[in-house]
Write the structure tokens for this entry.
Amino acid sequence: MVPALVTILTFQLIGEVISRGLNLPLPGPVVGLVLLLGAMRLRPGLAGWLRPVGQGMLAHLSLFFVPAGVGIVAHLPLLREHGLALLAAIGGSTVLALVAGAGAFTLVARWTGQEDER
Amino acid sequence: MSADPALIWAYLTQGPLLWLTATLAAYALGTTVFRLSRGQSWANPVLIAVVLLGLLLTATGTPYATYFEGAQFVHFLLGPATVCLALPMHDNLPRMRAAALPILAGLAAGSLVAVASALAIARAFGLGGEVMASLAPKSTTAPVAIGIAERLGGQPTLTAVLVLTTGIFGAMVVTPLFNALGFRDWRARGLAVGTAAHGIGTARALQVNPTAGAFAGIGMGLNAVLTAILAPLILRLFG
């Protein structure tokens, strides 16, 4: 478990250095994700070796958002003032974006004959 | 001889143990409710945990900074977990390459609509510049959104709250919405929720279907780049 964890953290570390060093709009972990994807293409054994630890982490992905979410308590006054408008903007735009994204994907998949083989 | 409860409380509030335990316990309770509801969207574990912890902090008068000292260990794992999203993507690489055009179309439509419609609704409610700038990048993953908002003149901490709210809302609404509209392609469903609701949407997609999870990871990653380009342009139209 420890060697796999070291590997994952190392990819994040390299990603962080590249992101900051080159002033990229992408955060370090996303750069680390891209690098790890490339490394797994070069060394096919890597994916299987990382899988037990990686799957374990992904199974609890939503847990890791809780501490940032609790930050809402620090913004209660502003939310009391603009809460309804912000909720309408977030709710409305999220529903529209979901439909637009899935709709555009499905349409183009149909046009280009890339419908899923289910 | 029994110790003074106030002294024990004072001791506990100095270390990370109390709020770290509380965070894990609140999430465990959230997942139990989620399981008992047989995976109903309204029983979102993040939402349940955030509400419980928010009430607990308010009731005990604990500042968020104190809470975060304990919870930062959980927060830290967000980075390595993001790196691990490479795994489901690797497993789905051939399918993703075959669907490159639909992915780009879904990404462009989802990203554009997310920013433009949020700003249009906010403007209709009369919201002003700083809040608009904080709102524009709310569909991207938190660290990217904060970076974009800062460049646009928004408030970083407000952006974090809006990003989290978007993620929780998207994760709650995605399954009933797509079932009602008859979208059955897991690739389209995943890509759309990753684009519109970043990591929390991706976490929800992973719970539902591994293919949806992989495409959600792609949507999240690519939308981080696209929103960094689109948000300033669209915000200028509302300026």
